[in-house]
Design goal:
heterodimer; A: 302 residues; alpha/beta; Glutathione S-transferase Yfyf (Class Pi), Chain A, domain 2; Rossmann fold; four-stranded parallel beta sheet; 15 helices; 45% helix; B: 668 residues; FAD/NAD(P)-binding domain; five-stranded parallel beta sheet; 26% helix; binds flavin-adenine dinucleotide; binds iron/sulfur cluster
Chain lengths: 302, 668
């Protein structure tokens, strides 16, 4: 199984833990991820609403490069995934928008014919692996670990090619397969605050707070995410939120790929657990999933 | 060309041509005098004149007089669309003493003056079209309309208030009515309501007398728990097959004493009671509700131990001292003939699961409106006590309007009754619980007699109205008052900010949709439906209860969402239209049908499956195709398909069409 891999900017920066854990997971599962050559910014979430033509050209360029490669294009970031799907949709629905981008593509000898299938890691892992491939590789089942799967909005709305728009379940199923207990709560598809965390932090943090609190009330040990922005919003602002809501307890927020890696017995570098702000190892040790080795460095490095 | 077959024989063809000004509608763009002058020069044209309004009485008289004066045997009128006045001019032709099918009409308005601006070119086109018509009309033949008698009975499909009202109207007019209802009882949705807006009269009190009248009317045959499986034939003469599902009760013996229900081995209900919207349980032997018509029990094969192959002492059967219970009953089929059909199959409420943000099925105290209708009803699952799933009374209730309606993700139409029934439920809930009631609406739509006044009354009663489409319902509280409750999140578009309103009960005003089997029913009765799936009337304004199939009429919500007053009015109209058909006593069939010339037919059967009206069969003895002129609608499909050229269609014969085309193309 071979794919084109589109990391987007986040996975090279704040979301490094996602990239590291995802790529090592793929390696362990014999899925080849070939980074797209000379990719550029995906166009981000709001650019399209501000300047449609330029944003579209930016996005479609990545699709054109992927089309040349001829493989399914995997975009782990929710933002990238959403905007790539959107551009492909625009290509198919609004030819005039595409016409405006044809010229800029041509300067590089590129064109787009609408044949690229944009995929999310959740989709690929859930649908492309042979049955039991994941289960048979489990070395450290996540027994007793209560996980709140948090999906956010971007890869199920407005286009949801592989999961339910309002009640997504793919992550639940994957983590269940490796032994985790999935807690039931009602916030898993709600918005994390997105880019508002920069523009209007008080609004965004209120949104984040409700998600974390719902997870906490559902007695989750950890929140699992599938998007670098969700992960960042949910984890990085916990101290600030606590200033307004002192009842909020610290709760680790990890990528689902990190948890899958742990279950497959991958080492600490591969799972990138040391990159967490709210440490997750203590819980994993407490549950007996990670061995109680004092040797492991406890410092958070970047 | 065989000249002998022209017209009535060898007589000379004498054509009169009349061109209409239509005020300035035609004359404004087309030089009608020039066209008349030109046509006068064409062969066989005896008279050619123009007139300001040819369709007026004076215009028609002119045609009649000219026929007599000039001994005309053909008439061509160049005017508007044949849809409007073909009938008028055919009648005038007939009054002049010649067969009306020697008339032909040229549409120079919709196909001419209204779509062209260049006067010279439009005039030229009118001349060309007239020349084509002159050439074609020579080959017209005398044709006769056939008359078929109409059976004096009607089939009504669906026993909601629409079907009930239509059936009673027909029956009271002395016609035989077959009312076929799918469920064990008639009554439809209305039977489930406690009260009806805006008068708040008790639904049962106004409905059940009509239901019993249906049950006892000498002219009505009521087949409940039954379905129409096949319908053949044509207007005035439909052959219908009705499947009667086994209810495991001998209808002629059961007196509805309900002893069997008391004695069923299940002491309490073991299966969901669909009449109560699954808010309670019922036994396998049951009657949907106390005033059900017919008052007959039914045994549900899915819930009955014995019918599931299990061991049961069958105490119901022993308890029945009339030996009415019959576990051996099989489905049976009835075959009837009727003159007309009224389709009144009603609607289905929108499935609230399709709006997951509103938490139906996720939060226990989110209800659909129909569930609340049952909750507030004194014969409902709680005896009229409005209690939540945990047994407590709600202190605050949110009613969300337009669930599934006016929504591009689900149904785009307005369901018309939800605002009003929401107001009704708001009133009833307040009466039952004294809770704070919040209505969340996009617009309040109250067009109806006494409806706006009812809305005002609700405002005066202290109900809250918040304008805004609810975003979602959450169980994650922020403040202590929200703890353990559902929080309605909504942008209050009048106040201009987002609100969170904690409530104990949510009512979803789900919209009205076509039934799941609507497209199947549509095909069975050969009617059309609009894009959203409701059955389509022949004309939205001028033929609101007719369909494109003659003799099949529509009543009630199967045609579109509407309230009970409109449903009843429409049912009355459908009955009246059926009565016209039955009372005239015969149907006239247009003669533009196709027929097979036997000597040319090779019997290849190409045409058989192509006819959309199943009008073609095969005469096995002669090995040729036969077209039933009564079923043929003159679509021409078979004519075009026949590889042997064996099929001809009246008024569209090859020589008529080719003569017209040849002349039309002379200029090109
Ligand atoms: C919650 C709610 C509250 C309402 N409250 C009011 C109110 O207070 N006042 C008011 O004026 N209106 C009210 N309405 C609207 C009202 O329900 C309709 O106007 C009315 O029920 C329409 O009647 P109907 O006979 O067309 O359809 P239905 O009531 O749906 O009846 C159709 C009947 O046909 C039967 N049927 C269906 N398919 C077949 C088939 N293939 N073969 C045989 N039988 C079939 C069904 O079993 C049913 O008995 C309300 C609607 C809702 C949803
Ligand atoms: S089946 Fe017998 S016992 Fe049951 S209601 Fe009918 S008559 Fe009564
Ligand atoms: S297609 Fe023509 S030849 Fe064949 S069966 Fe029909 S009428 Fe006869």
């Amino acid at each position: 199984m071979k794919y084109s891999y589109f990391p987007g900017c986040s996975l090279k920066a704040t979301g490094r833990a996602y990239e590291e854990s995802f790529l090592s997971l793929c390696k362990a599962l014999d899925m080849e991820m070939e980074e797209l050559e000379n990719w550029n910014c995906c166009g981000a979430t709001s650019f399209m609403s501000v300047e449609m033509g330029a944003a579209y050209a930016l996005t479609i360029r990545n699709l054109a490069i992927a089309e040349k490669a001829g493989l399914d294009m995997v975009a782990p970031c929710g933002g990238c995934y959403g905007i790539l799907l959107k551009a492909d949709h625009y290509y198919k629905k609004y030819p005039t928008v595409h016409e405006s981008a044809v010229k800029s593509l041509k300067t590089e000898g590129l064109e787009y014919k609408g044949t690229v299938r944009v995929r999310h890691p959740l989709d690929v892992l859930a649908s492309d692996l042979p049955p039991r491939a994941l289960r048979s590789k489990v070395k450290k089942p996540l027994k007793g670990l209560k996980v709140a799967c948090y999906y956010g909005c971007r890869f199920v709305r407005p286009i949801a090619p592989f999961d339910d728009m309002h009640n997504p379940e793919t992550m639940d199923l994957l983590l269940k397969t490796v032994g985790a207990r999935i807690v039931d709560y009602t916030m898993k598809g709600k918005c994390c605050g997105g880019a508002m965390s920069g523009a209007m932090p008080n609004v965004a943090q209120e949104m984040t707070y409700l998600i974390l609190r719902a997870a906490e009330r559902a007695e989750a040990d950890v929140v699992a995410t599938a998007c670098p922005l969700c992960q960042f919003n949910l984890e990085a602002y916990q101290d600030e939120i606590r200033a307004a809501h002192p009842d909020l307890k610290p709760i680790p927020v990890v990528y689902f790929t990190q948890l899958l890696g742990v279950a497959l017995g991958l080492d600490a570098t591969a799972t990138a657990l040391n990159r967490q702000i709210v440490p997750v190892e203590p819980i994993l040790r407490e549950k007996g999933i990670l061995a109680d080795e004092k040797k492991q460095p406890a410092t958070a490095g970047v | 060309m065989d000249d002998k077959t022209i017209g009535n024989g060898s007589e000379e063809v004498r054509i009169g041509f009349f061109i209409c000004h239509c005020g300035s509608n035609i004359a404004g763009t087309i030089d009608v005098e020039a066209v008349a002058d030109y046509v006068r020069t064409l062969p066989n044209v005896v008279v050619s004149s123009d007139y300001k309004y040819t369709c007026s009485v004076a215009g028609q008289d002119m045609i009649v007089e000219d026929i007599l004066k000039y001994k005309l045997n053909r008439v061509v009128v160049a005017a508007c669309s044949p849809l409007l006045h073909e009938k008028t001019f055919r009648a005038a032709t007939q009054r002049g003493g010649i067969n009306p099918f020697f008339f032909h009409m040229v549409n120079i308005r919709e196909h001419g003056s209204w779509v062209h601006q260049d006067r010279a070119l439009a005039t030229q086109k009118a001349m060309d079209m007239a020349r084509g018509a002159i050439a074609r009309v020579k080959f017209h033949k005398a044709l006769e309309k056939r008359r078929e008698p109409v059976r004096q009975s009607v089939l009504v499909v669906g026993g909601g208030i629409a079907g009930i009202h239509a059936a009673l109207t027909m029956a009271n007019a002395g016609k035989k009515v077959y009312l076929v209802e799918r469920e064990p009882t008639i009554g439809g949705h209305m039977a489930m309501f406690d009260k009806t807006f805006p008068t708040l009269d008790c639904a049962a009190c106004i409905l059940t007398p009509k239901m019993s009248e249906v049950g006892s009317h000498p002219n009505i045959v009521l087949w409940s728990y039954s379905e129409v499986t096949e319908i053949k034939g044509y207007v005035g003469n439909y052959d219908v097959t009705v499947k009667r599902k086994p209810r495991y009760i001998k209808e002629d013996l059961c007196v509805g004493c309900l002893d069997c229900i008391d004695h069923c081995v299940f002491k309490t209900g073991n299966t969901d009671d669909e009449f109560n919207q699954n808010l309670s349980k019922r036994k396998p032997v049951y009657i949907p509700f106390a005033q059900a018509v017919p008052r007959l029990v039914a045994i549900d094969p899915a819930a009955c131990t014995h019918l599931n192959g299990g061991k049961c002492e069958q105490s119901c059967a022993t308890a029945c001292d009339r030996q009415a219970i019959d576990f051996e009953q099989k489905e049976t089929f009835e075959h009837i003939g009727v003159g007309a059909v009224i389709v009144a199959t009603g609607f289905k409420p929108f499935d609230a699961h399709r709006k997951p943000l509103y938490g139906y099925g996720r939060f226990p105290d989110v209800y659909t409106a129909l569930e609340v209708e049952r909750l507030v009803c004194s014969s409902g699952p709680t005896g009229g006590d409005v209690v939540l799933k945990d047994g407590s009374k709600p202190k605050s209730v949110g009613i969300i309007h337009c669930v599934g309606s006016r929504d591009h993700q689900t149904n785009r139409w307005c369901s018309r009754v939800c605002c009003m029934y929401s107001l009704k439920l708001a009133h009833l809930l307040k009466e039952h619980t004294d809770a704070e009631i919040y209505n969340f609406y996009i617009d309040i739509r109250t067009p109806g007699k006494g409806y706006e006044e009812f809305y005002e009354r609700l405002q005066e009663e202290g109900n809250h109205f918040i304008r805004g489409r609810v975003g979602d319902i959450t169980d994650v509280p922020i403040i202590p008052e929200e703890e353990g409750r559902m929080i309605v999140r909504v942008e209050d578009s009048l106040a201009g900010f987002v609100r969170r309103i904690p409530v104990d009960m949510v009512v979803l005003a789900t919209g009205l949709e076509p039934r799941e089997d609507a497209s199947e029913i549509r095909r069975r009765f050969n009617i059309s439906c609009s894009s959203e799936g409701f059955f389509l009337e022949r004309h939205p304004k001028l033929a609101p209860v007719s369909t494109t199939t003659d003799g099949v009429f529509l009543a009630g919500c199967c045609q579109g969402p509407k309230d009970i007053p409109d449903t009843v009015a429409q049912a009355g109209a459908a009955a009246a239209e059926s009565l016209v058909l039955l009372d005239v006593g015969y149907v006239e069939m247009e003669p533009m049908t196709a027929f097979v010339t036997e000597k040319y037919c090779s019997g290849c059967k190409t045409c058989l499956p192509l006819c959309p009206f199943s009008a073609i069969s095969r005469d096995e003895e002669k090995g040729v195709a036969v077209i039933n002129p009564v079923l043929c609608k003159g679509c021409g499909t078979c004519v075009a398909a026949c590889p042997s050229g064996a099929i001809t269609q009246n008024l569209f014969e090859d020589r008529q069409i080719f003569a017209e085309i040849e002349e039309l193309l002379v200029h090109a």
